[in-house]
Fold:
Amino acid sequence: MEIFPERVQKLWDEWQLRSMVLVSLFLQIVLTIFSNRRKFTVAIWIRILIWSAYLSADWVATVSLGTLSQLGDSEGKHDDMDPHHTLMAFWAPFLLLHLGGPGTITAYSLEDNELWLRHLLGLVVQVGVAFYVFLRSWTSRTPLTFLSIPMFVAGIIKYGERTWVLRSASQQNFGDALLPVPDPGPDYAEFAKKYYPTRYQLQTEHLTKKETTGTTTALGLQSIIDGDHGTKLILGGKYINEAYLLFVEQLRHLYADLILSLDDQQKSEGIIRYLSSEEAFKVVEAELSFLYDVLYTKAVVVYSPLGILLRTVSFLSIISTLVAFSFFIEKHEFSNVDINITYALLFGAIFLEIYAIVMLILSDWSIVWLCSSKRKYTLLTNWIHRAITSFPSLTSGKRWSRSMAQNNLIDSCLRNKTKFDHEVNSFFDKNKFLERYWYIAWEKVDDMKEPIFSFLLEMTKDVGWDLEKLLKHRGDYVITKKGDSISSKLGWSIVAVEFDHSILLWHIATDLFSYINDDDEDPINPKSENAT
Structure:
């Protein structure tokens, strides 16, 4: 008994491999173009699109390779391959390219980085399967078989890059790479007392002098960071270079749970304190953008001399394959459909490479390199600088969404926003899903930059840069500033309860108070009728 008609089965046998290869190419294009947008887009549809494409891409490419390895088995040809299938066998290294993934995404979540050993095993297995397909096609000894060699080189490079990046971004390897060589050195406490205060005082005096003479503070800071007082800054470099310095020397160490030195603290203060709120937040935005690139993309490999070399070899391999296929391969013995699919794979691979190169040139990493190489490679840096400034919409203001998620506890408890039955709720864990997506609202927070930054500066003036004292303030600083009467009435909600309890109390109180008439300018004034 046939489940499907013979006509349908024949159509499926003829098109299953072709359709899966095209779907694999489509998924790579989607990931390349859209994956980086989740840095600055909070729309749920973009996350669903990236998540589904990320999970499907490896599966489709793996199944396609498995199907390629079985070509001719139904006809009893296990050792050699039908000449008509030789062109399909040529698709195997393209699937390795797809398994390597685009440079814009290697991991969807941090947990994916911890699975680098699984990807290493996948690299060995899938390269073995592709090589098996290649050996079976070798018996035909057509020029097309030799064209598979440069594509194999490009595919192995791409897949190897992905595995290496996942390993580098895993929690253990990320931290181990930052650990310095053990060196007992001198007595650090005595050394810090003698050296760092003097250095920090000189930096502060230099910055203050720059500010009073009319030059911008950012330029003074840039001069200290770069040691270059005469070089004209690259567009955006005065923020990005500072952010890169803080990222390399501090942020990635904090992410790896390493301890910062007193010099790191003073260097960070020397940069941030003399910036405006807008400038300070731009520096932080760029720092987080660098961290995102390291954890979720191929930035560790791509933005390095070795990565540029590998990218060049990969690109030249694909170009040479396209030229040879177009001019030296006799195509009359192959199906027109298969020839068109092969051209689609070749042009698709070239498009993805060119897109990656353009994104590399327009990235913050290029601006860092331009700032450090301005004098060494004048013509090249000027050309890249002109290319960057020609696309300002691609290089500015797109490092995050400028929004923060808000979850209203009272609203989520009182309103029943779904009407699923009990079995469906239990199966899909409805409450956790709703708390993460349905009850979340995103609000723009640009107007909060100035109050937050001003408040931090005010606290550091009163408390100083003693981090232990600074971190002990869980909110009592504001109440204390309002007077003893307010502190005696509301202080219990901050210092007398656990931290999570205090957050819930003030979340509910703030939400209830937001419904009160806004006529009162000072809501916590004890004389306010509404406040009581």
Remarks:
- The chain has 28 helices and two strands.
